[in-house]
Automatic annotation (TrEMBL):
SUPFAM superfamilies: YjbQ-like (SSF111038)
Protein's name according to its UniProt entry: Secondary thiamine-phosphate synthase enzyme
Pfam families according to UniProt: YjbQ (PF01894)
Source organism (scientific name): Desulfuromonas acetoxidans (strain DSM 684 / 11070)
Family per similarity comment: Belongs to the UPF0047 family.
PANTHER family in alphabetical order: UNCHARACTERIZED PROTEIN YJBQ-RELATED, UPF0047 PROTEIN C4A8.02C
Lineage: Bacteria, Pseudomonadati, Thermodesulfobacteriota, Desulfuromonadia, Desulfuromonadales
Length: 131
């Protein structure tokens, strides 16, 4: 498990280096790492990590499509966060070869906060390749 602390209500945090560090520390070589968020107002996604404007564009577009206030019925007042999380998804699976995440040149793994700031956890499960 890794812990994430968000600073804003809506935020995408690049956690690629944290996942890579976990893989190195555990000595994982070949297999698959499964990432899962146990929160109903946070998500995971893989997207471009070279241009920070991509993250900005994603958050702005999600806010336009799913505004924070829109006559929702949920009593907690955070329905937009639940909707965004359902669209983005709660898990990602990445192949690991020779101890390295097999991401594309411009890809990064992002933790998506939609109801922050908060302290969150991402669960990690290693599946070793068959020998």
């Amino acid at each position: 498990m890794i812990e994430i602390t968000s600073q804003h209500r809506d935020q995408m945090i690049n956690i690629t280096s944290l996942i890579a560090k976990h893989i190195r520390e555990q000595g994982y070589i070949d297999g698959v790492i499964v990432l899962f968020v146990r929160h109903t107002t946070a998500a995971l996604t893989i997207n471009e990590n070279a241009d920070p404007d991509v993250v900005t564009d994603l958050l702005v577009t999600l806010d336009k499509k799913i505004p924070w206030s829109d006559n929702y019925h949920h009593a907690e007042g955070n329905s937009a966060a639940h909707l965004k999380t359902s669209l983005m998804g709660s898990s990602e699976t990445v192949i690991v070869r020779n101890g390295v995440l097999q991401l594309g040149t411009w890809q990064g793994i992002y933790f998506c906060e939609f109801d922050g700031p908060r302290r969150r956890q991402v669960d990690l499960q290693w599946l070793a390749a068959a020998v």
